[in-house]
Design brief:
Layout lengths: L1 H27 L8 H14 L22 E4 L9 E4 L10 E3 L4 E8 L6 E8 L8 E12 L6 E2 L4 E5 L10 E6 L17 E2 L1 H7 L12 E2 L13
Parallel strand pairs: 1-11
Antiparallel strand pairs: 1-2, 2-9, 3-8, 4-5, 4-7, 5-6, 6-8, 6-9, 9-10
C-alpha cells in the first residue's frame, strides 16, 4: 500500500502540469477540431497504470448533505442552456458559503488546485466502478470551492469532507458546480457546451449507483425556473 501511494504521489506533479496544458489547449481549441493528443495519451495512461490501483466502489452519496441530499437544491440542472454539470446549494445568496462538500464515494484525488479564475478552487476525484460496469470509472469535478481539504494524489473515503462551497471569488452567488465525466483529462472546460460527449448527468448517475440505497429516493429539490431568483448558479 505504501509503495502504491508513493507511486501515485510521484504522478501528481506530472498530472497537474498536464491538466494545465489541457486547460490551455481547451481554451485555444476551435469548434470541430480534434481533441488534443495529450488528452488521449493521459486517458490511456490512466487506464493502463492508475485505474487498477483505485478502490472499487458502487456506493455513492450526495456531495452536499449526504447521503441523500436532504436540504440541498439543484439551482441549475444538467444540459439546460448546455450546462455540463449541476449547480447545488443549500441557501439563497451567499448564505451557503462554507457549506461542507463531500466526496461522493471512495476515490483518488487527481487534481486539487486554485485556478484563480471563474472556476476558483477545483478538485477532481477519480472513482473506479465494479468489474463489468459502464463506464469503468468516472472523474468528478467539484468546482468554485471556497476551500480545499485534500491534495492531489490523496485517497479519500465516501462522505469525507473535501472542501467547502464557494462563490468563485465573488463571481457568482455561493453554490457547488459539479460534473461527472466518463473520460479523464478533459480539462476544466467552459461549463457550458452544445456537445455533451464524455459528460454524464450527475443526479441520474447518483441515483443509479447508491448501493443498498438505490431504491430510496434522492431528496434534493430541483428548482423550477420560476424559483431560481436569488439562488447561486453559473448562469
Amino acid at each position: 500500500m505504501a509503495s502504491r501511494i508513493s507511486y501515485l504521489l510521484v504522478l501528481v506533479a506530472w498530472v497537474a502540469l498536464l491538466w494545465w496544458g489541457l486547460d490551455f489547449a481547451a481554451k485555444q481549441k476551435q469548434p470541430g477540431t480534434a481533441l488534443p493528443t495529450t488528452q488521449l495519451a493521459w486517458a490511456d495512461f490512466f487506464a493502463a497504470n492508475i485505474l487498477s490501483s483505485l478502490p472499487v466502489t458502487d456506493d455513492f452519496v450526495t456531495p452536499l448533505r449526504p447521503p441523500d441530499g436532504a436540504g440541498a437544491v439543484i439551482s441549475f440542472p444538467f444540459l439546460e442552456a448546455g450546462h455540463l454539470g449541476e449547480d447545488w446549494t443549500t441557501a439563497k445568496g451567499d448564505a451557503a458559503l462554507g457549506e461542507p462538500v463531500y466526496s461522493v464515494a471512495d476515490g483518488w484525488v487527481s487534481v486539487a488546485q486554485d485556478f484563480e479564475n471563474a472556476w476558483g478552487k477545483v478538485i477532481f476525484i477519480c472513482y473506479r466502478m465494479p468489474e463489468g460496469r459502464w463506464p469503468p470509472f468516472v472523474e468528478v469535478m467539484y468546482a468554485q470551492l471556497n476551500s480545499m481539504d485534500v491534495q492531489g494524489g490523496q485517497f479519500v473515503k465516501r462522505g469525507q469532507r473535501i472542501g467547502a462551497v464557494g462563490n468563485a471569488n465573488g463571481t457568482y452567488q455561493a453554490h457547488l458546480h459539479w460534473e461527472v465525466r466518463q473520460t479523464v483529462g478533459l480539462g476544466l472546460g467552459a461549463g457550458f457546451d452544445t456537445k455533451r460527449d464524455g459528460w454524464l448527468e450527475p443526479s441520474q448517475f447518483l441515483g443509479a449507483h447508491r448501493g443498498e440505497r438505490s431504491k430510496l429516493p434522492l431528496l434534493m429539490k430541483l428548482l423550477d425556473k420560476t424559483e431560481r431568483d436569488g439562488w447561486g448558479t453559473d448562469y
